[in-house]
Amino acid sequence: MDAKKAVLVLNGVFPDPSILASYSSSAYIKIAVDGGLKYFRHASITPDILIGDLDSISLEDRAWAEQQSVQILQYPPEKDASDFELSLTWVIQQGIPWVRILAALGGRLDQTMANCFLLMNDQLRGMDVRFEDGKEEVCLVQQSITLQGQPGDIISLLPLQAVVYGVTTHDLKYPLHDEELSMHQARGISNVMLTTSAAVEVKEGLCLLIHTRQGR
Questions:
Q1: What is the tens place of the pLDDT at every residue in 38-97?
Q2: Is 130 in the same domain as 182?
Q3: What is the mean pLDDT of the chain?
Q4: Domain boundary among 88, 109, 134
Q5: What pLDDT score was predicted for residue 208?
Q6: According to the model, what pLDDT value does residue 7 have?
Q7: Which helix (H) or strand (E) holds 7?
Q8: Residue 71 domain-assigned (yes or no)
Q9: Same structural domain for residues 70 and 156?
Q10: Which residue from 182, 177, 184 is spatially nearest to 201, judged by alpha carbons?
Q11: What is the pLDDT of residues 99-124, one digit of tens each?
Q12: 122, 198: one domain
């Protein structure tokens, strides 16, 4: 497996499972994170690796993975890291710079927030890591990022520290020009894309960016 792109499928809410097919080629290392295996099985797409303590998969899904000769990295249930964190660590160790994470949002709020906070791992710096579920795209803005979408898509910026400095946006309806965003204000919420692409720059600090596609 020498692909330089990885797709992780978790066990969360997946509004549009059909997008998994777009990552089915050999260009991607496909990783089922514990119960995310069911989405692969339902799509008849064989993952390369199954990672987790396997407490959220059915006997039928486990048997299917074994029949498909999926590499299984099983961990004990009593562990300090989540299954998602273990899979991210594996990707980092492989030196894979591009990662898309499916079915990681929705459901339990604690798990969704923990998943988002894992993007702050210093070892991910310089990598292109984004959550994707067909409806929403979520990523971390450390210095700059470019997005592809449609006019009318919603872009929200959530500071992950008290104040984020030097925030500049491009091709959004409500522009920011080298400004500050604070955690105790909602100024970065519900901006709107004007074209099919937009960009955000941050001079100091970390922002969580949520891209909500309209009409999906």
A1: 999 999 999 999 999 998 899 999 999 999 999 999 998 877 788 999 999 999 999 999
A2: no
A3: 92
A4: 134
A5: 95
A6: 97
A7: strand 5-9
A8: yes
A9: no
A10: 177
A11: 999 999 877 888 888 889 999 999 99
A12: no
What does the longest C-alpha to C-alpha distance in the chain come to?
55
Both 109 and 20 in one domain: the answer is yes
pTM higher than 0.85: yes
Question: Does residue 139 belong to any structural domain of this protein?
Answer: no
Q: At 120, phi and psi to the nearest 5?
A: -80, 0
Write out the two tokens for 190. 């519900």
The DSSP line for 68-80 is TT-EEEE--SS-S
Q: How far is Cα 9 from Cα 39, in angstroms, rounded to an integer?
A: 8
- Best CA proximity match to 157, nearest among 126, 204, 191: 191
Q: Are residues 45 and 77 in the same domain?
A: yes
Q: What is the pLDDT of residue 1?
A: 56
At which of 134, 156, 187 does a domain end? 134
Cα 156 from Cα 189, distance rounded (Å): 4
72-95: burial string, b at 16+ Cβ within 10 Å, e else: eeeeeeeeeebbbbbbbebbbeee
